[in-house]
Automatic annotation (TrEMBL):
Its cofactor is Mo-bis(molybdopterin guanine dinucleotide); [4Fe-4S] cluster. It comes from the Bacteria. Belongs to the prokaryotic molybdopterin-containing oxidoreductase family. CDD domains: MopB_CT_ydeP, MopB_ydeP. This is Molybdopterin-dependent oxidoreductase alpha subunit. It holds the Pfam family Molydop_binding. InterPro entries: Asp_de-COase-like_dom_sf, MopB_CT_YdeP, MoPterin_dinucl-bd_dom, Mopterin_OxRdtase, Mopterin_OxRdtse_a_bac, Prok_molybdopt-oxidoreductase, YdeP_MopB. NCBIfam families: Fdhalpha-like. Keywords: 4Fe-4S, Iron, Iron-sulfur, Metal-binding, Molybdenum, Oxidoreductase. Residues 659-771 form the Molybdopterin dinucleotide-binding domain. Residues 119-497 form the Molybdopterin oxidoreductase domain.
Length: 784
């Protein structure tokens, strides 16, 4: 098998087949092995895949679903294997690569091609000599020179608020903690992160209602639940290991209801590659019911379910947990009043469901005393996401479904350490208590003024208010909304710095000058002056455990994320004699990067729940952080109780002749990293520029399957009433079982359509799952 990278995607090769109704099984394993062998070769493939999520191995960079305590030798899923292959690849992006390819050349390549080139090996500089010259090339630079350059740009700023420090969610606890300390030491809270585009709405809603922005269930709770609602999530692709937990719940007698506009493969049937029956048979039917909801209709559904429970109680049935409501909650009357006048016709229009379907789900809820709601981006990336999630909490509170076995809220996180990064202080508005503890530990005064989140950071750059952008991982340009504006915004800065493992478009759309700082990945040995280091991460269920990389680093030039941050901090905070500058954190940066146990000591002193950190991560499976509602129905809200909220019902209105577009992931991608050209489960092969559309809409709008169209988003600013348009060119129409009026297409190709101003109330998350579009026929190009 050749190790050479593939060519980019040629959309002319697109083939459309039937969507699958089963996930994983042998085809999944084979596909993962094919990618792994191509990227890593046979020996490295065996070495790495066997270490995935094993005790004493490294944490899977694939997703934040927890590890089972008892691991199978081959506890890997297709997507974990792909994520590892992507990082442990033997291909290299070396200085020779950059000498061969100019920026102009690389800007022509697609995301798939860029990612295929391999691991970054050297610190590289794109200088501003002749910035307009399209033939500019990155050239190698010494680490010391790179840090000096960052220093000179940071010192040239008028105020510390002119620098922005982004974080993606793979960064370890140790690196994240040092990074926020560096940034706060520099004088700002400008710490936007991928969470702003992801589960921010969950954090906002849960923080307000239960006093902590994290999920309340453990893996055992999933296994023990009687009823599980999986809303706005595609676990077959994005959290495949979750399917094993759902399978187990099912065997214990749980009912599982999928609430989704799309019939996603894994939710319908799951072939567990770990079981003989899964490999050979037809697999387990995961969902008992599939409620094909219209995009954005969930708040109406959850509110109406609440109303039905209240009505059943009023009719004399014992539905509510009165003891819980009385002892542990406030706001019950407000909530009851808010849902009392809900009108069925409105709910049916918003959801596209039948009355019978909704009543049957209410009956399931009444029959269950252990209910869990799981959700992901289908619930968090709408204008009314925070209100929707508050209504999810309301419904659970009615029956006391929090803080008991088999019940609770389960926001399923994305990146493998996105939750840990937040715990470590990667947030533009950490609570005062965190700042107080940080100041006490490092004897300095951290800035208290809130910083920029992701969208605010783009506005700041767009308005020329930011000079320096640094990304700790991730691919900001492709992940952010409104691609053209985000690109223009970044181009206005003086310097962009990307700490990365792999080449991506954020290295090509830059400030006047740009740096690539190549770093170690999770799979690699991290050797420092104090010996081999481990790092720690927190999963979606607040469990913290260690991760040890074992592979030889992709290049001798790589520094760990911790070392990069520590060296930058030394450059910034020490004078030439190594003396600490005034008003900077008191920390021995060199010692910290030599021995990460010292970082963990600081974390233990600053962040609640980390006492005995070092000892606890030695335990098999690590340890679980405290969680008031889960551990003892303690709610850190102002009243000390969980809060019922009355929320006004919202749902998207689709103007005539328009569609509501959700932007989602294919089966062959990890966010902006495109692993392959297919979306096997949805029957798409060889291309990505497709629009999934209901047949009825094809008809009404006067198009046929296979037609090429431009997608035009129409956004009317609610404040100014000004309408603006954005265009994504040349998409192929694919007839698909999605609700009428509701279309779907892949991210990041469609990010260009998401207006920067279109964000969720309260959380500020871009509304990537509800974009109003119209289809514009492509003028046929005359051939001849
Ligand atoms: N292989 C792989 N794994 C991943 C990722 C990846 O890209 N690839 N990304 C990681 C990250 S960062 C994240 S955040 C997670 C994302 O995990 P998901 O949230 O599962 O990812 P999406 O592809 O955005 O899928 C959104 C799902 O919500 C549904 N949906 C859309 N709108 C609505 C709605 O209004 N209501 C309801 N009920 N459903 C709706 C869609 O049909 C789809 O099934 O996965 C993580 N894991
Ligand atoms: N339209 C639309 N937009 C979306 C979404 C959507 O559903 N629709 N989803 C949003 C969501 S949920 C998220 S989380 C964001 C994702 O946004 P990001 O987290 O910014 O994007 P990723 O694609 O995960 O970043 C991939 C890059 O991370 C780098 N990387 C990988 N591993 C490491 C590592 O260990 N260390 C370092 N330093 N770098 C590493 C590699 O260089 C790789 O190219 O996108 C958001 N954007
Ligand atoms: Mo995410």
């Amino acid at each position: 098998m050749s190790n050479a990278p593939d060519e980019g995607i040629n959309e002319a090769d697109l083939k459309v087949g039937e969507p699958k109704t089963k996930a994983a099984g042998v085809p999944g394993v084979l596909h993962a092995m094919e990618i792994a062998l191509k990227q890593m070769g046979p020996i490295r493939t065996a070495e790495t895949l066997l270490r995935l999520n094993q005790k004493d191995g490294f944490d899977c960079p694939g997703c934040a679903w927890p590890e089972a305590d008892k691991r199978h030798l081959a506890e890997f899923c297709e997507n974990g294997a792909k994520a590892v292959a992507e990082e442990a690849t033997r291909r290299r992006v070396s200085p020779e690569f950059f000498a061969e390819h100019s920026i102009a050349d690389l800007l022509e390549r697609d995301d798939y091609w860029l990612g295929q080139q391999g691991r970054l090996t050297h610190p590289m500089l794109l200088d501003d000599v002749g910035a307009a010259d399209p033939e500019r090339h990155y050239r190698p630079i010494e680490w010391a020179e790179a840090f000096a350059l960052i220093k000179s740009e940071l010192q040239a700023m008028d105020s510390p608020e002119q620098a922005i420090f982004y974080t993606s969610g793979r960064t370890s606890n140790e690196a994240a903690f040092l990074y926020q300390l560096l940034v706060r030491g520099l004088g700002s809270n400008n710490l936007p992160d991928c969470s702003n585009m992801c589960h921010e709405s969950s954090g906002s809603a849960l923080g307000q209602t239960i006093g902590i922005g994290k999920g309340s269930v453990s893996l055992e709770d999933i296994h023990e639940a009687k009823l599980l609602l999986i809303a706005g999530q595609n676990p077959g692709t994005n959290h495949p290991r979750m399917l094993s937990a759902l399978e187990k719940a099912k065997r214990n007698g749980a009912r599982i209801i999928a609430i989704n506009p799309l019939p996603e493969a894994g939710l319908l049937r799951f072939k567990n590659p770990q079981n003989i029956s899964g490999v050979l048979g037809d697999g387990t039917e995961i969902a008992d019911e599939f409620l094909q909801i219209r995009i954005g209709g969930d708040q109406a559904l959850f509110q109406f379910l609440g109303k039905l429970l209240l009505e059943a109680e009023a009719a004399g049935r014992e539905v509510l947990d009165h003891g819980f409501i009385k002892q542990h909650t406030t706001g019950f009357a407000d909530y009851s009043a808010a849902v009392a006048d809900l009108d069925l016709a409105t709910v049916l229009a918003a959801t596209g469901l039948t009355e019978e379907q909704i009543r049957s789900l209410a009956a399931d809820l009444i029959a269950s005393d252990r209910t869990i709601v799981c959700w992901a981006m289908g619930l968090t990336q709408h204008k009314h996401s925070v209100a929707t999630l508050r209504d999810v909490v309301n419904l659970l509170l009615l029956q006391g479904n929090i803080g008991k076995t088999g019940a609770g809220v389960c926001p399923v996180r994305g990146h493998s350490n996105v939750q840990g990064d937040r715990t470590m202080g990667i947030f533009e508005k950490m609570p005062e208590s965190f700042h107080d503890a940080l100041d006490a530990e490092f004897d300095f005064a951290s800035p208290r003024k809130h910083g920029f989140d992701t969208v605010a950071a783009i506005h700041a750059m767009e308005q020329g208010k930011a000079r320096v952008f640094m990304g700790m991982g991730g691919n900001f340009v492709r992940a952010a909304p409104d691609t053209d504006r985000t690109e223009a915004a970044l181009r206005r800065t003086a310097l962009t710095v990307q700490v990365s493992t792999k080449l991506n478009r954020s290295h090509l759309v830059t400030g006047s000058r740009a740096l690539i700082l190549p770093t170690l990945g999770r799979t690699e040995r991290d050797r420092q002056s104090g010996g081999d280091q481990k790092v720690t991460v927190e999963d979606s269920m607040s469990a913290v455990h260690a991760s040890h990389g074992r592979l030889a680093p992709a290049s001798e030039q790589l520094l760990s994320e911790v070392a990069i941050i520590a060296r930058l901090a030394q450059t910034m905070f020490q004078d030439d004699d190594g003396a600490r500058l005034p008003n900077t954190p008191v920390a021995d940066w060199a010692a910290l990067s030599g021995d990460y146990t010292r970082i963990r000591k600081h974390i233990a002193a600053v962040v609640p729940g980390f006492s005995d950190y070092e000892a606890k991560i030695e335990r098999p499976g690590g340890f679980v952080l405290p969680h008031g509602p889960r551990d003892g129905r303690r709610f850190a809200t102002p009243s000390g109780k969980a809060v019922f909220t009355g929320n006004e019902l919202e749902f998207p209105e689709i103007p005539a002749g328009r569609l509501l577009l959700q932007t989602l992931r294919s089966h062959d991608q990890y966010n902006t990293t495109i692993y392959g050209k297919d979306d096997r489960y949805r029957g798409i092969y060889g291309g990505r520029r497709v629009l999934f559309i209901n047949e009825v809409d094809l008809d009404t709008l006067g198009f046929a399957e296979g037609d090429a169209v431009d997608l035009v988003s129409e956004w009317t600013d609610p404040k100014t009433r000004v309408c603006t348009e954005r265009r994504a060119e040349e998409f192929r129409l694919v007839a698909y079982p999605t609700p009428v009026g509701c279309a779907a297409a892949y991210y990041p190709e469609t990010n260009v359509l998401v207006p920067l101003e279109s964000t969720a109330d309260v959380s500020g998350t871009p509304t990537s799952k509800s974009v109003i579009i119209r289809l514009a026929a492509r003028t046929p190009v005359a051939v001849g």
